[in-house]
Write a structure and sequence with these properties.
CATH architecture: 3-Layer(aba) Sandwich
Number of helices: 8
Strand content: 5-15%
Low-confidence stretches: 1-23
Strand order of the largest sheet: 1-3-2-4-5-6
Amino acid sequence: MLRRLGVLAAATVSLLAAAPAQAGCGSTVTARPTHKLGDFTAPLMIGDSVLLGAVPQVARDGFEVNTRGCREWNEGTHIVFQRKRAGTLPHMVGMFLGADWTVSIPQIRKVMAIMGPTRVLVLVTPRELGGKGGSDAQHMRHVAKQFPTRVLLLDWVKFTAPHPKWFAPDGLHLGYGGAAALARFLKRAVPYAAPGKFPGPSQTA
């Protein structure tokens, strides 16, 4: 009995310790597009703390934004699932995740399965701490090559490599000029947001 109580106490302490860290990540931030792209549902961009630094700019370019600090890929997958079940999932969904934990090929394929074969998944490669890319970006590039008619790759890692001044000292979060640059970069997906517009000449924009 004493041993069981000790285990329960340890579990309680663990949960209490985890709660402040999760709370420190903040709540979900959403934004409706302030520019209408056409007679179709606006594309959805799902992100983490990096996207938090450019919410109004990305919304101005016609995206619906849903982002939260500390968000991992599986949480983004759940958002896609909920929207699909509710009948509100748009033709194009962007996933700008990977700053927190990892992104595997099976995880990406799961999102594709939820979305179905007629929608477009936009994969935005994430920078790692220090500013370089890692396995998450490689996995996204791999899936984009496998499915050129279903996946649009936006290689943020390669695009930003010559521009370290766009970022905070961690090389990951947006600094001066970074928000505007990210919005311009994500706008590359806009021409393919309407049904029937993708695939384009390449799976990479």
